[in-house]
Each structure stands twice: as C-alpha cells, then as structure tokens.
Request: fold
Amino acid sequence: MTGLRIISLYSGSGGNATLVSTKTSTILIDAGKSARSLTAAIERVGLDVDKIDAIFITHEHTDHISALTVLEKKHPIPVHMTEMSAKRANIQKDSPLWQHTVVHPPRFSVELDGISVSSFCTSHDSAMSVGYRVQVGDFLFGIATDTGYVTDDMKNGLLGCDAVLIESNHDEEMLLTGPYPPELKKRILSRTGHLSNKDCAALASELAKSGTKRFALGHLSEENNTPEMATKTVGSALLGFEGISLFAACPDSETVII
Reply:
C-alpha cells in the first residue's frame, strides 16, 4: 500500500471523478465536468494528467463522462467502459475517444502495474451501470455512486473493502417534501434511481462488519440532502464499530479518502 493515494476530485450531480494513484500507476474512475476542470483538479493534488494509465467509467451519464471527448484529443488515455454504455454514449466513430475506448461486458477485470480493477453491476437508469473494486497489494477500495438499491453483485463487490466511496444521495423526507416534480421524485426513489441516506446506512453497517474502516459518502444531492444529514444517518448505523472514519465527499473540490 506504500504510496497509495485515493482522492475524490469531486462527487455530485455536477460531475464525478475519483483518482487512485500508486508509485507506479494512476487510474481515474469517471471523468465528469469539463476537461479543463478535471485537469485542474488533477494538478491541484500534485499529479499530471499525462501520467494517468487508464480511465474507468461507471456509466454513460453526462456527469460521469463529460470531460472525455476533449480530454482524449490531447491525452491518449485508454478508457474502459461497458459495451452498452459505450453504445449509448454515442461516441463519434472517427474521434480520438473512440480510438482509445476499450469496451467490456458488464463484469470485467483489468490488471495494471500494481493496480487490479474489477467491475460489479449496480442498478441505475442508464444503459449499464457498474461500480469498481480496486486492489493495491492487500488494500481494497470500492466505489459505487449511482444505484437505486444495493444489488447482490454490488454488495459482494464492496464487502471486505478497507475503504469505500458509496452513494448517499438523498434524505427521503427532504426529497418528498421538496420542490422536485413528482416524476423526478419517482425516478430518484425507484430501484434504478439513487441511494438514500437510510439505504446507504444499512449498507455501511454490513460493510463495517466485513472490516471496512473508511467511508466516503458520495453523489449527495444539493437540493435533497446535506453533508450533516448524510453523515448523521450513516453514522448512527456505525455506532459500536471501532476505528471508523466517516465523511462526505465534496461536490466541487478534492476529498482525500486515503
């Protein structure tokens, strides 16, 4: 685990990107916001975008891929995503992004120098949505930030991880009494929407039992949640577990996970 750094560059409806770096390899999970914003965030944590060995995409929604087209014009980084997401993203066939994209089935694994990445399926209203289990030596990191409920595949992918970045999108009461139109509320609450604080708390308790110590809460809704509400709800489920670190990932700035 020597030299390991895991940083959420930003996590929210405006964009998502998480960096995993060792002395020998660096990967990016998702590439939301603009290429300029993403590059600036990477540079702020002291890394160079040209040193990124691979980008792994969870799904094709804009807040997870919007930087890719421009980024790939200057930086020929391999982009790994499921074939279904790649098709729905409608990538131009003559673009640098198309040339650098490696498509996979929903469950796949990629081995880099010192970093192993394996996908697992989540449940979101996209063509396909996955999370990732990342192994560096004996250290395991799991990320799942867009899912309407905790799938068995997702739970198995996260169990035993030392640190996780998991979705805690909304407080149900705040969403139900808030200004969103009924159809949008229905979508968010559905099994292909986003994970609530309550459901995240139940997941966190199971993960803590499996040995997880560091919990970063991601993709918080700015309209239907607050960092305080999310950490309070999830924290209540982690009472009694020793050595736990719990915090919310920032939507517009870097959050150090490891």
Observations:
- The mean pLDDT is 97.
- Residues 165 and 216 are 5 Å apart (CA to CA).
- The radius of gyration is 17 Å.
- The longest strand covers residues 5-12.
